[in-house]
Write a structure and sequence with these properties.
Elements (H helix, E strand, L loop, with lengths): L1 H4 L6 E2 L5 E2 L2 E3 L2 E3 L8 H7 L10 E2 L11 E2 L2 E2 L1 E2 L2 E4 L2 E4 L5 H17 L1 H5 L5 H16 L10 H19 L3
Helix pairs in contact: 3-5, 3-6, 5-6
Length: 170
């Protein structure tokens, strides 16, 4: 990949010297672009073949409505999708994502019920388990969230409810 892209100026200028050209995650490729006109040409130059059945597009802060065509086939436009565990949508808002993270953390919390009820595990260790297992699920991707008081309150309410249950305060 490095050899094929050397000398090309595609992607996002990251710093004065570095440029982000693509994001490779497992066998998926996220291509970031301001325009789609060169997508097919650049992909084939890099040795990539676009699967039009699996390819989706999302337009964030765009008024453009023309359908994107690859190999003379229209690509489906979507309003939201889940990528690496985070919900991406056209509004760019994080409320939906926060509710999904609370649901996943709640599910994880419930799978550890036997630990929370155990009398052999100290409260200190239960809190450590909570911080490492539940909070990490809850706050995954939170560095990209735009926090407002209402959302922060929802997160804190969930954390407080869990801690009360761990401590046996009803």
């Amino acid at each position: 990949m490095k050899e094929r892209t050397t000398g090309l100026r595609n992607g996002i200028q990251w710093t004065l010297e570095d440029q982000l050209e693509d994001l490779d995650i497992a066998d998926d490729l996220a291509i970031l672009a301001h325009t789609h006109t060169k997508l097919e040409a650049i992909s084939s130059k890099l040795g990539l073949k676009i699967n039009t059945d699996k390819t989706k597009t999302i337009r964030i802060n765009s008024n453009a409505s023309e359908q994107i065509m690859i190999n003379n086939l229209g690509i489906e436009d979507v309003t939201s999708f889940t990528y690496l565990g985070s919900i991406i949508n056209i509004t760019g808002r994080t409320g939906e994502n926060i509710l999904a993270r609370i649901g996943k953390a709640h599910s994880t919390f419930n799978t550890l019920t036997s630990i929370w009820r155990s009398r052999e595990i100290t409260t200190t260790n239960k809190i450590r388990i909570f911080n490492s297992n539940i909070k990490s699920v809850l706050l995954y991707g939170s560095e990209t969230w735009r926090m407002i008081e209402k959302r922060e309150s929802k997160l804190q309410t969930f954390i407080n409810r869990c801690l009360r249950r761990i401590l046996g305060i009803y």
